[in-house]
Amino acid sequence: MSQEFFAKLTQSLIEGDPDATSEITQTALAAGIEPMEIIKQGLIPGMNVVGEKFSTGEYFLPDLIIAADGMQKAMVLLEPELLKRHQAIESTGIVILGTVKGDIHEIGKSLVGTMLSANGFKVFDLGVDVATDTFVSKARELKPDIIGLSALLTTTMVNQREVIKALASAGMGDKVKVMVGGAPVTRGWAEEIGADGYAEDAMGAVQIARQLVGK
Ligand code: B1M
User: Fold this and answer.
1) C-alpha span between 119 and 133 (Å, rounded)
2) Whose CA is nearest to atom 13 of ligand 1?
3) Residue nearest to atom 66 of ligand 1 (CA)
4) Is the CB of 193 under 6 A from ligand 1?
5) Looking at ligand 1, which atom is closest to the CA of residue 151?
6) Which helix (H) or strand (E) holds 198?
7) Ligand 1 center to residue 184 CA distance, Å?
8) Residues 97, 126: one domain?
């Protein structure tokens, strides 16, 4: 039965029907399907197909926007459920999170934030298109354990390096750990720019963040 829900969800994103995405998500939750499975097996495959169709020229920007709207509608329903399933007892650490300058992709970054919160981290989400200086000034103010930098474009992932450099120039290089992620980001890139951690997805981000704070 779950597979049927997942296929319908994927299809609703590909067809650009945000109301259907929202309704199917609601029905799947009511049927007892785990929210993380809904994301991993229904929604992310749909977004991947939309992305592929966009890169081959079959879809245009409005198609991406409609698919993102559907995904966000689903996330509004899924986020409280994800949080409920991980009632945090202790604070695991403080994380400042944001999508780097020039990049407005929000969904993956927000999912990482939700999963970190669900696992006891106090997350300050600075949003998208966050200026390098803002990461530095917020780090000074909030004294986080980790700064998480998301980037979805090959043209903006270079700004992850800019943040790392700016933190070093501000004398915070050894006071805060930097974790990077996002579709074009690889472990090799993370190592090249001197990041302390890299994760491929939101659950991986929780694991790496725990390691970075020694838990
Ligand atoms: Co854009 N876009 N987009 N887009 N978009 C991509 C990324 C693209 C791959 C599509 C394609 O061509 N195949 C392509 C990038 C190509 C490249 O650089 N190599 C692209 C492009 C080109 C663009 C524009 C330039 C298009 C244009 O204007 N001509 C433009 C750029 C705007 C800008 O940022 N300045 C643009 C715009 C948009 C929309 C606004 C329409 C919309 C975003 C809406 C929003 O977020 N509110 C959008 C969307 C939806 C996509 C795709 C289809 C889906 C992204 C998504 O939400 N995925 C995407 C194609 C794709 O990725 N398959 C695409 C679901 C999400 C859960 O996954 O974000 O990867 P993801 O996050 C994952 C992991 O990456 C990881 O964990 C998450 C959960 O598993 N992760 C982290 C993410 N951040 C992390 C941080 C961590 C650790 C892990 O630690 C801190």
Assistant:
1) 28
2) 51
3) 108
4) no
5) 84
6) strand 197-198
7) 9
8) yes
Question: Which is the closest atom of ligand 1 to the Cα of 48?
Answer: 63
Is the minimum distance from the CB of 104 to ligand 1 under 6 angstroms? yes
Last residue of a domain, one of 21, 52, 84: 84
Domain of residue 77: give its range: 2-84
Closest Cα to atom 80 of ligand 1: 201
Same domain, 168 and 123: yes
d(CA 20, CA 11): 10
Q: What are the tens digits of pLDDT across the range 69-106?
A: 999 899 999 989 988 887 555 678 999 999 999 999 99
Which residue's alpha carbon is at the smallest distance from atom 82 of ligand 1?
181
In this structure, which residue's CA is closest to atom 48 in ligand 1? 64
Number of domains the chain contains: 2
Give me the mean pLDDT over the 2-26 stretch.
Answer: 96
Q: Is this prediction's pTM over 0.85?
A: yes
3-state secondary structure string across 166-185? HHHHCCCCCCCEEEEECCCC
Question: What is the maximum span of the chain, computed from C-alpha positions, in angstroms?
Answer: 54
Q: Which atom of ligand 1 lies at the shortest distance from residue 61's CA?
A: 41
Strand ranges inside 28-165, DSSP E: 93-99, 121-125, 146-150
- What is the sign of the dihedral through the CA atoms of 88, 92, 94 and 97? negative
